[in-house]
Amino acid sequence: MRAAVYTRISQDTAGQALGVKRQLEDCLALADRLGWEVVAHHDDNDLSAFSGKTRPGFEALLAAMEAGEIGGLLCWHTDRLYRSMKDLERLIEIADARRVQIRTVNGGDLDLSTSAGRMLARILGSVARQESEHKGERQRRANDQAAAAGKWVSANRPFGYTIKGEIVPEEAAMIRQAARDVLASKSIRAVSKEWIAAGVTGTRGRPFTSPNVRRLLMNPRYAAIVVHRGREVGPGQWEPILDVDTHRGLVAFLSDPARHPGVNFDRKYIGSGVYLCGLCGGPMRHALAGNPTAPRYECRDHQHVVRRGEPVDEWVETVVLQYLSRPDIPLRLDDGRTVDVAELQAQRAGLQARLDELAGLFADGAVDGSQLRRGTTQLRGQLAGIDAELAELARKNPAADLIGAGEQLRERWDALTPDLKGKVISELVTVTIMPAGRRGPGFDRSLVVVEPRA
């Protein structure tokens, strides 16, 4: 007899289809004992019979039965074949009409051609339904308890974490960099394109689209915030990839209806519209002038000044990085206020040191539990205020994330796009390119005047 095998497993967290493979092996052994010829295998891996989703393998099986392609059906157990009464009735109708024999490895024969057999199938389906609902109730209760305790719960591995909630350093670094870039006005589309170009994929092996990146950056899980049944319930007990204030800033920024995410005006060269002409004071633009290997900057309105682009950019970056290394850089905002970022970072470090000291005093018995709680609450409140201010500064001015970066300055700078580098340069300094006059060949640094903004 020509027969088909149907296999299904509800959840495959390892993604290796081992459960389906074991079911298939047992069904093939049963077919061999029965003398049936297996001509097709239909499977639904990692798909619950109660999920409400279409089961492609099950639909293909019913189609093959209705077309008369098979006379026998093998499955591991009836609950692998159906749990929904709706699916059972469809199976009964087709199996009875086409006289399809059904055999199971762990459930015996299923004779749907008789009223007694159909009654048994319906009873088994009702029992399976009750078991599934009871399991769901237990799981929901367990999830409620886990959420209240701030425990990590995840059916699938999210990008940036292992399935157990441990940080994956390389992926976490990409998320942090993307958060910094987006808060500094880099487009989600640009982040997506960079990740695709780098060969980065999600945990299911698919490339990141712009909506994927947007959802990821707005996901409270990355700030160790527990969300249960669509509502934030408190802090999680796992290590965050982003601090809470950065997360709040991302959500506010990406939810702002005034944004126009479909329009991309990112500059491709750091000096375009940033460098100024030394004769007329107008902005300079980047031009290839017929030679793609030697791009240059030229005065936008008049060709007062023309200069090769690469040496100018290298010199400006060198000066700006030296400037960013200073501990006393004021950060100027659009409303004219100046903010001492280094001072804010020093205050934050001081508060963190006091928190560590308080924990040490508690360990030594110098303070009791109530004193520890009061002190910790007060210090964490002050820390949260500074973190919120730093996150808002990073959103308003991309230079904020570079000031006080120390040994990480060069790495953070190199990670910026030309557009963001141009924004940092324009926030911190003015760059004026003077006319060369009658000078010899070679690059003359004195003709590129870089001055801190007043």
How would you describe the shape?
Answer: elongated
Mean pLDDT score, rounded?
81
| Biggest β-sheet description | 5 strands, mixed
The helix count comes to: 14
Query: How many runs of DSSP E, i.e. beta strands?
Result: 15
The amount of helix comes to 40-55%
- Helix-strand category: alpha/beta
Cα-to-Cα separation, first versus last residue: 89 Å
CA gyration radius, whole angstroms: 32 Å
Note poorly predicted spans. Answer: 12-17
Q: Strand share of the residues?
A: 5-15%
In spatial order, strands of the major sheet run 2-1-3-4-5
- SSE arrangement, N to C: EHEHEHHEEHHHHEEHEEEEHEEHHHHEE
Organism: Mycolicibacter terrae
GO molecular function: DNA binding; DNA strand exchange activity
Pfam family, one: Recombinase
Domain Resolvase/invertase-type recombinase catalytic: 2-150
Describe this structure in words.
- This is Site-specific recombinase DNA invertase Pin.
- GO terms for molecular function: DNA binding; DNA strand exchange activity.
- It comes from Mycolicibacter terrae.
- With about 450 residues, the protein is of the alpha/beta class.
- It is built from 14 helices and 15 strands.
- The strands form five sheets. A five-stranded mixed sheet has the order 2-1-3-4-5, sandwiched between helices. Strands 8-14-15 form a three-stranded mixed sheet. Strands 9-10-11 form a three-stranded antiparallel sheet.
- Strand 4 (about 100-105) and strand 5 form a beta hairpin.
- The longest helix has about 35 residues, at about 115-150.
- Residues about 10-15 have low confidence and may be disordered.
